[in-house]
Amino acid sequence: MYKSLAYDPKHALNAICPYFTMFPLEYPLRVLNKHRDKDAIVFDPFCGRGTTIYAARSLGLTAWGVDTSPIAVAIAKAKLASAKLEDILALAEKFIGREPKHIPDTSFFRKAYHTRTLAELCSLREGLLQIRKETSESALLRATALGCLHGPLTKSKESAGYFSNQMPRTFSSKPDYSIKYWKNNDLKAPRVKVYDVLKRKLSRISTFEEEPLSSPDQILCMNSCLKTSYKTLPKNISVVVTSPPYYGMNTYIQDQWLRMWFLGGPETVDYINDSQIDHNGQDAFIQDLASVWKNISKSKAEDLHLYIRFGSVPSKSSDAKIILKSSIEEVKGLQILSVRNAFDAHSGKRQADQMAPGSQAAEEFDFHVVRA
Q1: Residue 183's pLDDT is what?
Q2: Which residue, 112, 158, 250, 360, shows the most beta carbons closer than 10 Å to its own?
Q3: pLDDT at 21
Q4: Which residue, among 360, 295, 284, has the nearest Cα to 334 in the 3D structure?
């Protein structure tokens, strides 16, 4: 029986933080393997948690990534970091050993975390927020903490992989819903030591010290729709592997609100939408996507390949094929070489319906686009 690479201990670094829109590692590995001997410069304009970035690292390729979400950027940076385990843990111990200046005192935080666990978590948060210059150690520590911030309870504290009361792994349930759920099920936050949970998670990763060709600085928090965002990117991008947000799927920040808090955001859910792509109408969405492809098409690389995985949200009456095809046709000089159903059968559940794990997968398509 086929077993997904997501469960392969060799790729534990790629799984450092669960993310509900992540696409399977098999996809970028399969695509990038075709360009392994061509000194490809890999780019993902919607890099998310950095699966394409990690795949490029694994194959010895240079990679760059862009995303507007600070959470996505924080996780993706870790995919290009290299450090010793003891150095990451030493940094964690240093931060956790301090007294926090502020501890949230809302009903949600009091019930989501044990009092002492929350104090340690706040110390770690404040320490990471005070860093002036990012290092590989801080990038890996931050991403690991984000991955352990919330998740399901375990039978024993000794095996705990998360800091929180019962919660989903990949997205942050809203405060009112969470409080009601914990009360109805008589669930209390466990007393877990933040350092111990981090150590358990980090100890599973065996590739920390492998030096990649790229660095965490090559993951940028920017908007790939804007021409100005490409000033700091290489001029010879040759291979793009990406999966843009589906039309109508624009609640990433709200669905990750607790991770946003850890990165310095508010203690409550911020419902303001500042999406990378305009979701106010299908035409506006297509034009924004087209601006990304247009910016990329200006690459000075001899050959340019774009591999794009795209699907649709069931609640939206839209055709993924037409949307993506229309966005490509807006750009002179680009040609769709092939379109086929996505290789990974149930991957459509990633973006389409993350709140309902028993739902049917949405259909996804893989586009191969080249410069004519």
Answers
A1: 97
A2: 112
A3: 64
A4: 295
Query: How many other CB atoms are there within 10 angstroms of residue 315's CB atom?
Result: 10
55 in helix, strand or coil? helix
Angle (CA) 355 248 297, round 5° = 120
Task: Mark the ranges of the chain whose per-residue pLDDT is less than 50.
Answer: 1, 345-360
The segment(s) of the chain belonging to CATH 3.40.50.150 are: 5-80+219-371
| Dist CA 146 CA 138 (whole Å) | 12
369's CB contacts (< 8 A; 6+ apart) are 293, 305, 306, 307, 308, 328, 334, 335, 336, 337
5-80+219-371: CATH homologous superfamily?
Vaccinia Virus protein VP39 (3.40.50.150)
In the sheet that 219-221 helps form, which strands lie side by side, from edge to edge? 219-221, 62-67, 41-44, 239-242, 305-311, 364-371, 334-341
Token duo for residue 214: 């790229």
**273 Cβ neighbours under 8 A, 6+ residues apart:** 250, 251, 253, 254, 279
Kindly write down the DSSP assignment for every residue of 133-195, as one continuous string.
S--HHHHHHHHHHHHHSSB---SSGGG---SSSB--SSS---HHHHHHHHHHTT-------HH
**Collapsed DSSP state (helix, strand, coil) of residue 306:** strand
The predicted structure's pLDDT at residue 359: 45
Q: Which amino acid is at 74?
A: A
Q: What is the enclosing helix (H) or strand (E) of 309? A: strand 305-311
How many residues comprise the chain?
Answer: 372
- Start-end of H helices in the chain: 26-32, 51-58, 70-78, 85-96, 107-112, 115-129, 136-148, 175-184, 194-203, 252-255, 257-262, 282-297, 320-329, 349-352
pLDDT, residue 17, reads 94
* pLDDT per position as a tens digit, 173-189: 999 999 999 999 999 99
Q: What is the CA radius of gyration of the chain?
A: 20
How many Cβ atoms are within 10 Å of 35's Cβ, its own excluded? Answer: 20
